[in-house]
Write a structure and sequence with these properties.
Blueprint lengths: L17 H22 L5 H4 L1 E8 L5 H8 L7 E6 L9 E8 L9 H14 L4 E4 L1
């Protein structure tokens, strides 16, 4: 016996209720448009501008420690992700830190990058920084 997800003979009249389905589709479109207008778009660093800092360390990446170290700087939207790549050696632990541009700026200022480096050096010595 084969498994059947849909019975051989269905008796649901889809076309007989076309006005219902058309009305439901129109209602959902109006709701989604209203939601879009109320919430707006949530642009990330790709559209707002900013700087990506890549750290390389022999120690394991502690995202919570990174976040705690960067919080007093008041950088706004900061995204910290640990990067895994099978080509990395055992002592290569890489983190990507994305910092949004501050109001009125296209990128993060040089002073802000120096502050980020100093804050992360406080977490652990031996970090190497690369900017993108």
């Amino acid at each position: 016996m084969r498994l059947r997800l849909v019975p051989q003979e269905t008796k649901f009249d889809f076309f007989g209720r076309w006005k219902l389905w058309l009305g439901l589709s129109a209602l959902l479109m109006v709701l989604s448009f209203g939601s879009f207008m109320a919430q707006g778009l949530n642009f990330g660093i790709d559209f707002r501008g900013g700087t990506t800092i890549r750290t390389l360390s022999a120690e394991a990446v502690d995202v919570a420690a990174y976040r705690t170290a960067l919080e007093p700087l008041g950088l706004g939207d900061v995204t910290i992700t640990e990067v895994f790549d099978p080509t990395f050696e055992a002592d290569h632990n890489v983190a990507m830190i994305r910092i949004q541009a501050q109001d009125g700026e296209q990128a993060v200022t040089a002073n802000m990058v120096i502050n980020v480096q100093a804050a992360l050096q406080g977490v652990s010595a031996g970090y190497q920084f690369r900017f993108g």
